[in-house]
Amino acid sequence: MADNRKTLKILHAGALRKPIKDCVHQFWKDCPDVEVTLDYAGSRACAHAVLEGREVDVIALADPHVFEDLLVPGHVDVFFVFATDQMVLGYDEFSQYNSEITRHNWPDILLREGVLFGRSDHNLDPCGYRTLMVWQLAEKYYNRPGLFNLLNGRCGPDLIHPKSIDLAGSLLEGRVDYVFIYSSVAEQLNFRYVRLPDQINLSNPAYADEYAKVSVTVTGKGGGVSLVRGAPVEFAVAVPKNSANKELANLFVKTLTSREGEKILESCGLVPC
């Protein structure tokens, strides 16, 4: 017998893995016969997959700027911001000097001999360029000229991962002592973390003007260059123009942004919009 079930294809940022999976289970309560496929990557890598012709029904990214920069209006008509977050410095009980680290001394701890810390690739993943922004903001906030270059110099290519969720594995396996990740990811994985001051953690709209004073240049697969300015951390979702199941896709977005969806986001450490 032929399988006539419809398939919903979702492509999402790695940092959204758990909330998207949990929202799929909520979606199945109303649409139990729909087959759902999930794939994830860094947000810019997700966008480039769509640019290269990949057909997906829902795309959820870790920065609305990626939609604006790469997908609107050619591949996406409209996107919706559905949650916010902040950057933190994650670690575990085996991280060097973890009993000493605070929101005030973390730069000194990271720069100690033998301490390893990681970030994601700024060309592929918003968490990566947001980390570089945090370092720039920290240089000003702590009045430490040259701090950005010191941190950037200590985080070599072997400590840079394609997407933020990969950093978690690096920390779990003990390959690094600290990682710059979203607080939601740290909470989902029960990591300890340093909450950074609002002036540098990209969480507080009151500091949006200050965040906007820093920027990072990112390079796409085709060699195109974009300038990304600092802004509060937001997550956004859209139904691409090439979706083969727009009705189902919109139902999933409705689930994600429903009261039940908001409860799921909150349980995963995100702040629903």
For the secondary structure, the number of strands is 13
Outline type: globular
What structural class should be given to the helix and strand makeup? alpha/beta
- Major beta-sheet overview: 6 strands, mixed
What do these coordinates show?
The chain has two domains: 7-84 and 234-272, Periplasmic binding protein-like II (D-Maltodextrin-Binding Protein, domain 2); 87-219, D-Maltodextrin-Binding Protein, domain 2 (3-Layer(aba) Sandwich). The chain contains eleven helices and 13 strands. The chain has helices at residues 17-30, 43-51, 64-71, 106-110, 126-141, 147-154, 164-172, 183-188, 208-211, 246-256, 259-267; strands spanning 7-13, 35-41, 58-61, 79-84, 87-91, 117-120, 160-161, 178-182, 192-195, 215-219, 225-229, 234-238, 271-272. A six-stranded mixed sheet has the order 2-1-3-12-4-13, with helices on both faces. The mean pLDDT is 95.
Secondary structure layout:
Blueprint: E1 7-13, H1 17-30, E2 35-41, H2 43-51, E3 58-61, H3 64-71, E4 79-84, E5 87-91, H4 106-110, E6 117-120, H5 126-141, H6 147-154, E7 160-161, H7 164-172, E8 178-182, H8 183-188, E9 192-195, H9 208-211, E10 215-219, E11 225-229, E12 234-238, H10 246-256, H11 259-267, E13 271-272
Parallel strand pairs: 1-2, 1-3, 6-7, 6-8
Antiparallel strand pairs: 3-12, 4-12, 4-13, 5-8, 5-9, 10-11
Helix pairs in contact: 1-10, 1-11, 2-3, 5-6
